[in-house]
Amino acid sequence: MITKRIIPCLDVKNGRVVKGVNFEGLSDVSSPVELARYYSENGADELVFYDITASAEGRELFTDILTEVASKIFIPLTVGGGINTLADFDRVLKCGADKVSVNSGAIRNPSLIGEAAKRYGDQCVVISADVKRVDGVFRVFAKGGRENTGMEAISWIRHCVDMGAGEVVLNSIDTDGVKRGFDLEMLAAVCNAVKVPVIASGGAGKIEDFITLFHTLPGVDAGLAASIFHFGEVKISDLKEEMKKAGIPARLV
């Protein structure tokens, strides 16, 4: 059986890891370099690094910090934020990223996904979708959850995969930072729409939330979280032990 991945997420602003609730109210957490090293040494399967204000501020991603993070870890690294061109893909990959996550850049220029997949391979291109319910419809949001694009989310994600995205990170704005569990309804809709790996993001508050996620939706490949790992509320080693007890395949440290 393919093991389920546990992925900490570093949301970086002004060179520091931050965390908020429903994409708002950001508070300072730690150094991205120190946190990345810690996770690499303590059982994380992958790491996600988001420069969360690059798109909204219309600038390039912080490459100096990214290069240092990549040099300190020995697990796959996915990087996103301010990715708008093939040159951005190239720059981030040269800093040490294994995969590149696109969101606002793909919304502005959907052909970017196909162009990047053709040059770097599908496995390198991750579509990250920030999704929120608006009048009962899943809508895609851009610029770090600040801007409603009006696009229906499931058809958008399916389109991105058809163009060459090899993985989907689904960020539920509705459950982000709330710590009451993953957005199972939203995730089920995505899993039913695509045949590539789906990563669940937004809502984890305790170990049981991951157990519920993987038991309820075996099609989900990974669980991503931030604050519960950053603040020591859940240790990845403890989480994986509980997954094993629950019959969920995991890579143990």
| Helix content range | 25-40%
Mean pLDDT: 92
Number of strands: 12
Q: Quote the beta fraction.
A: 25-35%
Number of domains: 1
N→C terminal distance = 18 Å
CATH fold annotation: TIM Barrel
Round the Cα radius of gyration to an integer and report it.
Answer: 16 Å
Q: Which residues sit in consecutive blocks of at least 5 with pLDDT less than 50?
A: none
Give the structural class. alpha/beta
CATH architectural category: Alpha-Beta Barrel
Which sheet architecture does the biggest sheet show? 8 strands, parallel, barrel
What sequence of helices (H) and strands (E) makes up the elements? EEEHEHEHEHHEEEHEHEHEHH
The main sheet orders its strands as: 1-4-5-6-7-10-11-12
Query: How many alpha or pi helices?
Result: 10
The outline comes out as: globular
Q: Superfamily at the CATH H level? A: Aldolase class I
CATH class: Alpha Beta
Overview of this protein structure:
The chain is of the alpha/beta class and 253 residues long. The protein has one domain (5-245): Alpha-Beta Barrel (TIM Barrel). The chain contains 10 helices and 12 strands. It has helices at residues 32-41, 63-72, 86-94, 104-108, 111-120, 153-163, 184-193, 207-216, 227-230, 236-245; strands spanning 5-13, 16-21, 24-30, 47-51, 77-80, 99-102, 125-134, 137-142, 147-152, 167-172, 198-201, 222-225. Helix 1 (32-41) runs parallel beside helix 2. The longest helix has 11 residues, at 153-163. 49% of the residues are buried. The mean pLDDT is 92.
